[in-house]
Structures are given as C-alpha cells and as structure tokens.
Amino acid sequence: MAVCVQDNRFDIVTKNTLYQIKADEYGVLCHLWYGARTDCHMDYLLDYPDVGFSGNPYDVGDKRTYSLDTLPLEYACEGTGDFRTPAISITHEDGSTALDLRFLEYRLTKGKYSIPGLPAVYADEKEAETLEIVLKDTASDVQVVLKYGVLEQADVITRSVVVTNKGESAVVIKKAHSLCMDIPYGDWDWVHFHGRHTMERQMECAPLIHGIQESGSGRGTSSHQQNPTVLLCEKDCTENAGFCIGAALMYSGGFQTQIEKDQLDQVRLVMGIHPKTFSWKLAAGENFYTPEVILSCSVEGTAKLSQRFHHVIRNHVCRGKYQFSERPVLINNWEATYFDFTEQKILDIAKQASELGIDMMVLDDGWFGKRESDTSGLGDWFVNDNKLVGGLQSLIGQINQMGMRFGIWVEPEAVSEDSELYRKHSEWVIRIPGRMPVRARYQLILDLSNPVVVDYLYDRISKILSENHIEYVKWDLNRSICDWYTDRLPQDRQMEMPHRYVLGLYELLERLTHDFPDVLFEGCSGGGGRYDAGMLYYCPQIWCSDDTDAHERTLIQYGTSFFYPTSTVGAHVSAVPNHQTGRDTSLKTRGIVAMAGSFGYELDLSTLNNEEKKEVAEQVKKYKEYQKLIYEGTYYRLSNPFEDGMAAWSWISKEEAQILVQGVVYRSASNTLRRRLRLTGLNEHASYKESESGRVFTGAALMSGGILLPRLTGDDAAFEITLIKWK
Ligand code: GLA
What is the value of pTM for the model shown? Predict the structure, then answer.
C-alpha cells in the first residue's frame, strides 16, 4: 500500500520518498513533509509561533499561536487569515471572496484517476493508487477535492483538484491551482526555464527572495518564454547529491508558477492555470477540473530527479504506437526550400535521402492552399496544385516507391486572412468586435473553444489522413493568442475562453490520435513554444526549437533535459552557415548534437559533396544502432554548458552494458592540457572498456579521475566515446 491513513494523517509512500499531510483537530489540512522516507510522524516539525499580525481562526478560541498565516497548508485559501499567495480564489454570489477549507472525508482507490477532457498521467491498478481528500468551506457549499495519484515504483505523485459547487447559486473561480505545497524549512534556489523563439528553455537558477517570485505564460500556450516546470533545490544540491523537488504542469495553455518566501522564511509553491487569462463561472451542481501537476523529489541531486521525470513521461504520459518503438529518421524540407519548392524538388530531396538510409520525407509548410509565403493560405488544407502538380497521392506514391515513408506539416489552429476559409468563415476567428485583432506572422487564430470549429478541423485533417498514405504529422502553431472574446458566451464568462480553447485543442488531438493510431504526431509551436507534458500525451516528440545551430542547441537541449526525455526532443542536422545564427559547425558536431534526440535532417542533401554524403549515411547508421540506448538508457548531464565551456551528456543502458558519452567543447585554445570529463552513474566496482582505444578502466576511475577527452581543434568540436562493460 502506497497510502497509509491513520488518525487523519496521510502517508503517501513511494519507493524512495514520503509525502505526509494531516487534517488537524480543526480540520485544517497541514503539509508535514515531502522528502526522503523517514518512517516517522513528521508533525513534530510543526511549530506554532506567536507572530504579531498573524490572526487566529475564530474556532481555535484563545490559542493565539494557531494561525493559518504561519502554518504549512496543503491547499491555501484567500480572505480568512492566510495572507500568503493562495492556491484558490473564489467570488461568491454576494461578492465576497473568502474561503476556509476544512477536512470532510477521504477516499482511497486503486489505479490512477483520469481527468475529464484533460491529459493526465496514466497507470494501471498495480502501478498506482489514488487518494482523494475532500475539503469543505466553513461558510458556503463550495467543496474542493484534492487528488493524489501515487506511482509508487516511479517515485512520482500527481496532484490535481476538483472544485465543486454544492450550493444553490453560482460562484466564480478566479484561481484554482493544481498544486500547493508549503515547505517550512530549508534554504532554497529555484530553477526555471525561460527563453524566446529560437532560444527556449534556458536554465536559470536564483536564490529565493522574500515575497513572490513567479514564472508563467499569458500567451494562450505554455510558451517559448517560460516553461511550465520548476525545480526547488536546496543550496548544496548538485547533479549527483542533495535535495530537490520538481514539478511539471501537464497543460498547454497559459500557466503560473508562484513561489513565495514568507515572513518566517517558509516557502510556498503554487502552480496551475494562469489567473490572468482565466476565470470560470461554476453554476450550482457543477465541477471544475484543474490540469494536473507531476511531482517528484530526490535526495540524490537533479540527475535522479530528471531521470524520474523521463521515466514517467515516457511510460505514463506518452502514448500510442510510437511511445517506445523506434522512430523514423526524417528529412524535412523546411530549411532546404522554405516555401519555394516543386514536386520535383521534393522528389529529389527524398531520393537523395533514401540513398543515405533516411526513412521518412516530411513535407513542411507550403504544400496547401495559396501558400507561396507566410502571408496567405493557412486554413486551406487542400493541396497546392501549383507546386504539387500531381497532387499528394502521386507524390506520396513516388516517395513510397523509393522505400521512404511520408509525413506532412499542418497548422490547423491558425488562419490567414487571405484564404478561402477566412473568406467563408471569418466569424470563426478569435477577435473582439470593434477592435482590430493582433496579427502575428500575418495570421489569426481559429476559435477552438467553438465545437463547430473543432468538428470542421477534425473533418478536414482526418480526410487528408484517410485519403493519403501519411505516416507522420507535424502539428504547428506559430503565434501567441490574445483578443479573447466570443459571442457564444455571456459577458461574465469571457475569460473561460482561453481554457476552453485548450480543451478544444485536446479534444481535437484526442480524436485524431485515436482514429489514426499509426500516424506519428510531432508537436511544434515555432519549435518548442508548446513543449509541455500536456502535448506529450498526444505527440511523443516535439520539434525542440527552430534554432538548429548545433552550439545553441546544446544549451536548449540541456534545459529541456531537466524534465523531458531525449525521446521527445525533435532534433535535426541543418546546413551551414546556420540559418538562425550564421555559425559554422562541422557535420560531425551537428550530427552528434541532433543525435541527442529524435534524429533527422533539414537541408538540401544534394548540396553536400560525396565525402559529406558518406558521413551522413554513417550518422544515420550509427543513430539507428544507438537509438534504443538513446531512448531507453539512463540520461546524465555531465557538464553545465552555461559554466563549463562545454556541453557533455551520456546514456547508460538499462543493464549498464553500454555507455555512450557525447559532447561539444565550445572554444579551442592553444597549449592546454586535454580536458578531463568525469562520468556518473557507473558501478564503481565494475570495469569498462573504451571501444576506440581498447583501454579498460574501473567505474571508480571513470567517475573520480574521469576520462581524458581527445585533443580537439576548432570551436564547437564534438566528441563521442563509447564504453562497454568489461567485468
Ligand atoms: C515553424 C516551425 C518550423 C517550420 C515553420 C513553417 O516555425 O517550427 O519548423 O515548420 O513553422 O512555417
């Protein structure tokens, strides 16, 4: 049993961790512990200081040391004496916003709960248990159910919330976060992942200051600018030692992560849908379901924490035929041709690629409608006869005959004003009457909160997929969303739209992935603008970034690796000078960096000389040889590329029989010693043979003394070392 209940104390026990909460004598649900297993009642850590200006609930009588403002709470409310940031905020019919949630009952069930309309971690009855704790407001009929999904062996706990209106009149939810966790002790840094288009998930680590620090997105998508993931690390936490907690919100819309350090140096972490672009009117008898947060913690540093997230995302989030199976090596024509291609050009690229061992031709933007540039055509998901004279079927037939599979790009959520669809259905676009809408990349957004639009898109896309032998879809979205308004909702429900949009998107993806189980869906939003566990439920891989520069990719992929496994990272070798940065890197470096993900190419292979083509063929062969290790092996970051002047990473196979170490040294220097790289995750008593030199080292030597990297010349020089277990 992963959950033990005694005297209203709940012990959620996983293989290596303990999460403990209790409903105290007043029914207040207190957070006691999240960390290493202690086999102990952790309520001895609860302190009840007498803090001035921290008031006391009426029902505690004269106990002036009992304050909701100082206790570590499991789901913090607003307006009843806890002055820290709340997890929930509700406006009652009379306009008041106070809520005081107290324990009512609990339920324990086998298996993992699911969430209506939203993606969620899945697990069978042997793998998971669900704890539900029901809380009730002291003065109204608002109830809140806190759900905990416990994946014992995976050391993962999920959290989500159901808000229920058991009263007679409607209430308005202004904020309903999925996670609230109070941590009374410790000295913490927080780590989040910020960025921009073509530079996503840059790792940033900062000490907590008093007050609220936050990351989030109000862009309608999880965004390039911030990622819905966060780490709290104790000061002495490193890759391989020390305590850290990680949280990933499984949601693809606007989100908020807030961390508050309070007057007593206690830390509160809350995470959920961003209140800036959310409000929800909950009529009598209705439920509101929040998305869920995936939680884990580690006493052995961030490597272990990342590995736990990799495991849960690969095994309990990603689904479908391609969840585990080997993925095709792709050639994508975007950076090779942009909008300027003909059928013959695509066939030439495919032919060249097939000769080098590449598996699938992906036809990117420009194959449909009047799409000669990014100013027109979006929405018209009919073949562009100017470019593809024989239509899709003939093109795919010829490509299949080469032994290549075929995939296609779509951006269903967007529409160009210069399109048949817009001319016919301009009312489907998100905009506010009397106000000109914001255009981004010249395009507008279709209102996916409207079921008619979702049905239309389903019909269009499913027609293309059923009429053509398409085995892969790249699902893109190239702008942020604003101008929220719909005449389908009354005035006081307008801000339900951003969440309803995400629900519409999920429904569309669910229907398509269900009805076309053999198609590999790759997520994309101008690269990694919607790289989150929600999208990974439908798409087992995501185009990591529109930045294909190998040097910058090492930084982007480093940040991505903290939560997301390499099997989810779409990565391609592109041309030099790189189209985003103008930087030259060797084909070897580009190959090694793209191999740390779902591998492919994105350049005109016919421009390569014979030697380079040979190198491409060898890379493809090598990738196929190592794909299982790269997808299933345990991943280690071996350097911090922001500090160490190099990026280095490794995978160790499950049986520890095979180790692949790769990396890039950023700058060369004259007259230096060779660099030494310490490996991690090996068995110190075993010995390992380096394939190239044939030299045998002990695990202890490789982890303490490290391995000397080859003498490298030139900037951004890549290295690769393979080891096999010897004894
Ligand atoms: C986005 C994607 C690119 C490419 C273009 C096409 O930017 O991330 O890979 O598909 O759109 O317009």
Answer: 0.98
